Structures are given as structure tokens and as C-alpha cells.
């Protein structure tokens, strides 16, 4: 563990200890939270979330650096074509109008064979994953074009029976539902740069545009993959996932410790044992989860204190997902299940074009990026949600 990560882990543990002391103190006073209590708890929660982000970023950068170093050692004599920054500068100079950036899987020499995310396409995806973690956990299918893609949806398994000696064994075929169809919805974003900045060789064009487009795509795609209606947009998994638990009335959609326990165990044990089984919640819901205790006065929530440890609730990894709804009347504020059951279809590469005419009067170059993508929860029983009560 690096010294930086160790410091973040220690700081996170300290903040979590203070948060639990605050919760215990409030409960000892009768459970009434004052404005000062709420503000202090919000500050501690924000500190814990920030430490988690810093740890994750440091881990990703360390893995990237290791992969780049391995590639340099094994392929020191390799030649390269125009860099992405050169291509972008050619676009602003008018030499080319547009370019489709593809995902690059470069040999790294590592045991995992993981791609080195140094291309423009992968830089954008890396930023998008920070705001839309579903891109890290779902089943991603990459295709070169955008024709409809049909995914089989199994409804039942083959069955076994006891048969006597010499008795014919009957057939038992698995059953399937209708195919789930993935299309390719076009997400687009615009960014602007002055011509002076783009033509200056010292400016990190790749980094700037990757940050702009990565954030734009991450939030937009994440929202539709979760909440999309399926009408001229992807079908989000929340509208089709089964309701595992509905909350009580009179609590404005809040969930209790018993609700969370029932939600986790509303899914089959075979799903709960999978490494991709996790809970999705936004920061508001996670703050509420951290306050919950069981009947033995033990917290349901465990802060991940190791380098590769995630926060857990009832032993289930908790993934902060900004596009999940906050607790409210009738809101689906928690989701838990096998995230590999969510399929994301990526059609083609990332198309980038530029225009000098759009903001001609301001001497700005306008950049347009388009990403064609779709998603669907193929096995709808593999993810369950908590739905807030009616009042």
C-alpha cells in the first residue's frame, strides 16, 4: 500500500469512527438530530466519500503507470503514428474534418493483459467511469456498427429427475423469454476551445477534451442506463427490476435496517455469492445506510479500510451511483443484485468533429463528440430495488 493511500485509509477510518460516535450520541439523547448534528454528520460523510474517491483515483493511476512501464520495457523499439493530440490539431487546422477514435487494447506484458488506457477514447471512458461506475461492472458488448443486437433471455433451467433402472430418461430443455434487443442511441456533447490554445503544442488537448466529454457522457449515459424509459432512449434497469421491498408509510420514503436486510435476501443465494453482486445508491442514500443498526445495536455498514476494500453493507459492496434516486415517497432509492446482468452495448468508436463556424464570432473552435450506446437489464429478476412507501 502506498504512503498516500495509507494516509487516506487512516483518515477515512478516523472520520467513520467520529461519525459512529455522533450517531451513538444522538441516539443516547433520544434520537433527535439537531441542525449542528446534521451538519457535522454531513461533513464527516463528505470526508469519507472524498477519501474513497482519492483512493480509487490513486489505484487507477498506479495500475496505469505499471502497465505503461511494462509496455515500455517490452516494446521499447515500437513506432507510433500521429498522436491523438496531433490528430486534434490537424482538425483545428482544417486538414481533417472529423475522426473516429477507437478503443485501443495495447499489449502491456502484464499477467492480466489489461489495456493501457492512454488513447483518447480510453481517457474519455476512464473519466466517464468515475461518474458512471456501471461502465466498470456491467457486461459491455463492443460492436463495429449499430444494427439491432438480440440477447437471449433465459426463463428456466433444465431439470433433473430420479428414474428407475432401464427407464427412459425424459428430456428437459431450458426455457427462454423473448429476446432482449439492444439498439444504439446517439449521445452527443459539445466543448469549445480558443484557436490559440488548440494550436499551442504545450496544451494538453487530449486531457481537456477527455475531461469535458467524459463527464458529459458519464452523467448522461449513467442516468439513462438507470432511469431511462425505453422511448427514444435506453431502457433503464430501475423501471424493469423487481421490487424486493416496499417501505413503510409515514416516513417519506426512508428505509430501515430491516428493509435493507429483507432487500438483500430477496435475491437468490446463487446471485449473492457472485463477485459482481453489489448495492447501488447515491450519496444521500449511503449517508442514511451508514446510520442503520441491527437489533443488536451493530452497524450494518462497514467502511472499507484496506487498499482494495470497498465499503460494505451486510457484507455486500456498496457502489456510489450518482444517478440513483434519493429516498423519497415512491422512489427507488436502493438497488441490489448481480450487475453483470446489466448489458451495455457500445456501437463503434467515439466520433469527434470540429466546426469553426459555430462560434466564429468568438474565435472558438467547437468540438462535437458522439457515442452510440444502449443498455438493458436482461435478467430482470437478478436485480431488486427498494421502493419508498406511499407517504
Any key phrases for this structure?
alpha+beta; 14 strands; 7-stranded mixed β-sheet; 11 helices; 391 residues; 5-stranded mixed β-sheet
Short description:
The protein has eleven helices and 14 strands. With about 400 residues, it is an alpha+beta fold.
Task: Describe the overall structure.
The protein is 36% helix and 25% strand. By secondary structure, it is an alpha+beta fold. The two termini are 47 Å apart. The strands form 3 sheets. Strands 6-14-11-7-10-9-8 form a 7-stranded mixed sheet. Strands 1, 2, 5, 12 and 13 form a 5-stranded mixed sheet that branches. Strands 3-4 form a two-stranded antiparallel ribbon. A hairpin with a 2-residue loop joins β9 and β10 (316-320).
Percent of residues in beta strands: 25-35%
| Widest sheet, order of strands | 6-14-11-7-10-9-8
Structural class: alpha+beta
The average pLDDT value, as a whole number, equals 81
Total number of beta strands: 14
SS summary, helix count? 11
Can you tell me the residue ranges where pLDDT is under 50 for at least 5 consecutive residues?
Answer: 67-81, 105-117
Helix percentage range: 25-40%
Overall spatial form: globular
Largest sheet: 7 strands, mixed
Radius of gyration: 24 Å
Give me the oligomer status. Answer: single chain
The first-to-last residue Cα distance is 47 Å
